[in-house]
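User: I'm new to structure prediction. If I give you an amino acid sequence, what do you actually give back? Let's try with this one:
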Amino acid sequence: MSLADSRPRPDGPARGRPRSEAVERAIIEGVMQLLEEGVPLAELSIERVARTAGVGKATIYRRWSGKEELFVDVVRAAEPPDPELPGTSMRDDLVVLLESLRRRGLATRSSVILHNVYAQMKSSPRIWAAYHASVIAPRRALGMDVLRRGLRDGELRPDVDLELVNDMFVGPMLVRSVMRPDAELPEGLAEEIVDTVLAGLRPVSSPTS
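Assistant: Good question. You get back a string of structure tokens that encode the predicted 3D arrangement of the chain. For your 209 residues, that looks like this:
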């Protein structure tokens, strides 16, 4: 998988005049082309992106306030799309969220460019902060919403710390996909993680007298 094989997501930034999907696609694919040519993120100026995409700088600035926001959308275009939750139960929603994380891990492993982009983003505080605010924080908030619903519906013990529980679900998948690049990410891993953690977190009925 390469960045150029990916398609920009349709829910990009809504700024300025009504946007042209074709123009946005050309801009994002222009960034992808430069990255695949080995241009570091630090050297990707808006002017250089505009030249590559065949548009004016003003066209880019009407859609993105700066290159940090543009790069976030480029990465999101290369990642698997965020899933729609079934809403049938806390367990089912958690499985879908972790499966999405597993697929992102596989995508990162299969794309050297995407792997390098993540590494470069983390070395740029402004770009990483923009990615965290636009992508990571909303994903975590979604997971917390799922856990709150589970607590409300009696699917979790009432004494649990939801922030800690969220880490307990997400942590094993992150370890395998980020910290252990040699570890397998097999199908069914999301279900295994969720069911293993839930075994210790579900409410326990009081023994009958």
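You can read the tokens as a compact description of the fold. Here is one thing that stands out. Residues 1-18 have pLDDT under 50 and may be disordered.
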